[in-house]
Amino acid sequence: MLEKIPPWEYNMYKLKMSDYTSMRTGGVARAQIVTDTSFLKYNKQLILGLGTNTLFSDEGYDGEVLIMRNSSFQIDGNVVTAESGTPLPILSRAVAQSGLSGLEWACGIPGSVGGAIVMNAGAYGGEIADVLLSVDVLTFGGKVTVSASELTSSYRTIQGLPDGVILSAKFALKTTSAETVKRTMQSFAEKRKASQPTGRTLGSTFKKANGKSAGKYIDEAGLKGYRIGGARVSEKHANFILSEGGTSADVRKLIDYIKLRVYATFGVKLAEEIKYAGEF
């Protein structure tokens, strides 16, 4: 049963973050599951989508978390409006059925629209910034709409968004045939299945370094299959860490070890794509 906490923290409950992250690790935090943003207030909460790139401390998180589960979307011609909690694979398949191109690369990314915007998610030569029209953000002062022309994008980042909660976004896609889009998506899905592991993972752990895949550095450092506790470097793709009954501490120790080993071997500093929440 959920444990309700003081009434002035409206709709906040003590929730295990291990239940809301893809790694299935992490302790307790005060959290609100958001399905309707009409009465939402922003007060420096940590924003969580599908939890596919956030590692929570085993000791929990001493702050409030908004778990975004607002997931409706609309297709109007070639313009798509999607709430921030919409899962990317669901949106990608829906627009494909409507014969719209531009989100094929997102068919296998297990994140949400909001998270994809914050980190400028991408794959197979495409990224969210390529099709972004505007973003609605709830700030301290209320809701604001930010045009894509006001933003600056680069590899795995978008700059110019105000501090707040992403509520929804608009995307401009290209009209083509549904069959063409589906063939491209199928090709991407097959590549992903052949090259990336399944299981409890945060996806790509590190960003590219010096234009080279982090996975190649890790592989060449001899770390495929390397384990610390219940965390292991995937043999299939070295930039993926699998949690096999371990803890967030195991994952963090393995990440730190990988960074040290790659730096000692190649003089290259790897930077995480993932985010940390809580004390490690």
List the helices and strands and how they pair.
Layout: E1 3-4, E2 13-16, E3 28-34, E4 46-48, E5 54-56, E6 61-68, E7 73-76, E8 79-83, H1 88-97, E9 100-101, H2 113-118, E10 122-123, E11 126-127, E12 132-139, E13 142-147, E14 152-154, E15 157-159, E16 165-172, E17 174-175, H3 178-195, H4 214-220, E18 227-228, E19 231-233, E20 241-243, H5 248-266, E21 275-277
Parallel strand pairs: 3-6, 4-6, 5-21
Antiparallel strand pairs: 1-2, 2-3, 7-8, 8-16, 9-17, 10-11, 12-13, 12-16, 14-15, 18-19, 19-20
Written account of the structure:
- The protein has 280 residues and is an alpha+beta fold.
- Helix content is 21%, strand content 30%.
- It is built from 5 helices and 21 strands.
- It has helices at residues 88-97, 113-118, 178-195, 214-220, 248-266, and strands at 3-4, 13-16, 28-34, 46-48, 54-56, 61-68, 73-76, 79-83, 100-101, 122-123, 126-127, 132-139, 142-147, 152-154, 157-159, 165-172, 174-175, 227-228, 231-233, 241-243, 275-277.
- The strands form 7 sheets. The chain has a 5-stranded mixed sheet with strand order 1-2-3-6-4, with no helix packed on it. A 5-stranded antiparallel sheet has the order 7-8-16-12-13, with no helix packed on it. It has a 3-stranded antiparallel sheet with strand order 18-19-20.
- The model is unreliable at 5-9 (pLDDT under 50).
